[in-house]
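Ticket #4471: structure export looks truncated?
Reporter: QA, pipeline team
Priority: medium

Steps to reproduce: submit the single chain below to the structure queue and open the exported record.
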Amino acid sequence: MTGVLIIIAAFATAFLSGIFGMAGGLLLMGILAFLLPVSAAFVTHGILQLVANGWRAVVHREHVVWPIMRTYALGVFAAGAVVAMIGFSPSRPLLFLLLGLVPLVVWLPRRWIALDASRPSHAFLAGFTVSGLNLTAGVAGPMMDVFFVRTPLTRHQIVSTKAAGQVFSHIAKIGVFGMPMLLAGRSAMPPWWVFAIAVPLSMVGTMLGGRLLDRISDGHFRRYTAWIVTAIGMLYIGKAVMEWL
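Actual output as written to the record:
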């Protein structure tokens, strides 16, 4: 039953991510954290989102701003090295709390934000902070958005470039949380057939979401994204409170 739920969640959240770029990953992480132990949830999320984001980057590859991504990747692997050395792994209540707080980033007033991912130093900072949050809270889409609000990119460039950046972050997540499980010889990962079904369905969901993305305006894209991820965040904060109680 758990495997079937993961497959359904992978398809549905890939579809959502194909439209808004980050809401799907946020929702999927919470579902996996509910179904699996924390480390297994991180690795499973990393694998599924690696495919979903990677395929989204391929589908919209002509829109990816690769100069940003090259510097961003350096920041990602720097953050991965730091978290691996510390050996941090959140408890379930803390994980849900962090998942609930991450979406609040989208409400930061734009006049407070002077970050621009098109600048090399800011692209490195984006890779480091976004990946660092990804390795502690499991997701970091809203934080990544902070580095794009001042860039003159279209919705297609935002979705595709963020997808390419998240590929690097998920590779780091798989390595940081998967390696200790591999070395210890213990794993609560879903069986192989779950990934065999979920991976192609994630690709289909991404393509269907991309078609809907073509039909909405840049204004609606930004507005709906903020409200959707905030609603998901409130649910996670409630879950964190219940876990602690």
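Status: closed, not a bug. The export was complete when the record was re-opened. Leaving a note from the reviewer for reference: The chain has a mean pLDDT of 83.
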